[in-house]
Amino acid sequence: MTTIIRNTMGNKTFFIAIFSLLLAITASLSGFAEAGEAKSASGPTSQFVQKLGDTALMSLTEKNVSRAAREKRVREILRNNFDVPTIGRFAMGTHWKEASDAQRKEYMDLFEDMIVQTYTTRFEDYSGQTLKVDGSTVVGAKDSIVSSQVLQKDGPPVNLEWRIRNKDGALRVVDVVVEGVSMSVTQRSDFSAVIQHGGGSIDALLTSLRERSKKMASNQKT
To answer: What whole-number distance in Å separates Cα of residue 217 and Cα of residue 222?
Structure first.
């Protein structure tokens, strides 16, 4: 079975993947535009990202929390801060238009579960990384790019850029770029490979996601 997520990050840098959620997981709908305003370290988008980081640290790294409770917290943070529907549609690419309503619904459910299961596990391995927000730059009418770094105890800082979109008056993450690599583009490429290896069938992706979900759930019981 083709691997869905590229597990290229070890425990030392898992925090990067968390905030990328989007190894996965996020959607870059267009290229970065030219900045419309000077970078601001205290603007609403910068504060949004810093609060997201602080909330995740406080809520998800707490010891003696059950797996079920931690998964619930991850899901709440995901839904409240990320534009999951946009992210999921982008990750499926052009195949979204080919999918039936039933396939789309199952895919979105499995996609969210994949994210929740993956990052619940990674937060269980937290080892002291912190997020430092440097500032934000307005791009286009609705988006801002927030620059930040993941600071590690035993390694160099890792650069992250968050694409934040104002959607219906609420700020949501739609992409995270880690050291110049878009997590949404990476995920889209992986999903496309699964579909292509399955003869172009969307069911191949759904099957892969189902099997992955069952395997992760089984591993938690052992």
So the answer is: 9
